[in-house]
Amino acid sequence: MAPAKRNAVPSDAPRRRSERTSTKRSSAAGELSHDAPHIDVVDDEDEEATSSAMADQWLFDIKAKLDSPTFDHPDLIQKLDPKYFNLEFVKQTGLVKPLFFDAPPTELGMKMPNAQRFGVNEVKKLVTPEREIEVVVVKTQTSRKMTMNEFANYYKKKAAQRKNLLNVLSLEFSMTPLEQKVRAPELIKSIDWVELYWPKALRKRQEYLTNPPADVSTYPKVQNYCLMSVSDCYTDFHIDFGGTSVWYHVLKGEKIFFMIEPTEQNIKVYEGWTLSGSDQNKTFFGDIVVKCARVRLVAGNTFVIPS
């Protein structure tokens, strides 16, 4: 649990917009690194059709949490003008609070695809239809493998035709054509340990492989992630691996986080809640800590979650 003490505990709540896309990047060394586009495209009618699937799994009303004043804690989040997001700011503050930016990507030195011309099909073309990806089955919070082509076909279906809610959270797209369409905030690239210190030659071994086996990985391939979710997808409370910091950019739609401070007390409560096993679906973790802040991101917003 040592790395966990350095990390916030976020949870993705159900999205309620018709189209959603965001970009996320994480660092393997506890410093900020880059993230990739998260793309969700969903019809409004899907929301009603998938609500019953969520109700079958969670014994609390997740959607009621989306508007409850209990989670209004703006003091836990810092809204920042991009012009102040620089190395001096990092040195002075230590990046203690999550940072919210409501500004065009260019003001952060970022590059993003054109939201009107970019969706799941474009991701499929750029990472190849044969690319094997891991998808999370929302109802059980377990994962399984499928190809990008299979997921794109699933994504196109109406909600009533989908047997399960599937959520893509870990499509790492470094060294694919998609990487050329995304650039992290300038500050993040400048302090990314992978960019600064990892030997460039060690990244070449995977450069042209569609599905590189794990045993050929010679660098921390955790810089660029594309997230894709249909309506009402939910990720339960968790701590990101290795005490990483991440940034998100929402390209389309809406994404909601529930953030909890990584205090010693909160970590102890989290450990007990995690070990409770089957009781997790009975208790919304945000209800059993002193403060849990809801953060709503819409298209164009950027969010930095420190380790």
Describe this structure in words.
By secondary structure, the chain is an alpha+beta fold. It has one domain (3-305): Sandwich (Jelly Rolls). Helices cover 19% and strands 23% of the residues. It is built from 7 helices and 13 strands. Strands 2, 3, 4, 5, 6, 7, 8, 9, 10 and 13 form a 10-stranded mixed β-sheet that branches. The chain has a 3-stranded antiparallel β-sheet with strand order 1-11-12, with no helix packed on it. It is globular and about 45 Å long. The model is unreliable at 1-55 (pLDDT under 50).
Give the SSE string.
Answer: EEEHEHEHEEHEHHEEEHEE
> What's the helix count?
7
Instruction: Note poorly predicted spans.
Output: 1-55
Q: State mean pLDDT (0 to 100 scale).
A: 80
Q: Report the strand count.
A: 13
Q: What is the CATH level 1 assignment?
A: Mainly Beta
- Secondary-structure arrangement, i.e. CATH architecture: Sandwich
- Tally of separate domains: 1
Strand content: 15-25%
Question: Share of helix among residues?
Answer: 10-25%
Subunit organisation of the chains: single chain
Largest sheet: 10 strands, mixed
Biased composition (Basic and acidic residues): 13-22
Domain JmjC: 192-307
Organism: Plectus sambesii
Keywords: Iron, Metal-binding, Oxidoreductase, Transcription, Transcription regulation
Question: Strands, helices and their partners?
Answer:
Blueprint: E1 11-13, E2 19-26, E3 35-41, H1 45-57, E4 78-79, H2 87-93, E5 99-102, H3 120-127, E6 132-137, E7 142-147, H4 148-156, E8 166-172, H5 186-190, H6 193-197, E9 225-229, E10 246-252, E11 254-259, H7 264-275, E12 293-298, E13 301-305
Parallel strand pairs: 4-5
Antiparallel strand pairs: 1-11, 2-3, 2-9, 2-10, 5-13, 6-7, 6-8, 8-9, 10-13, 11-12
Helix pairs in contact: 3-4
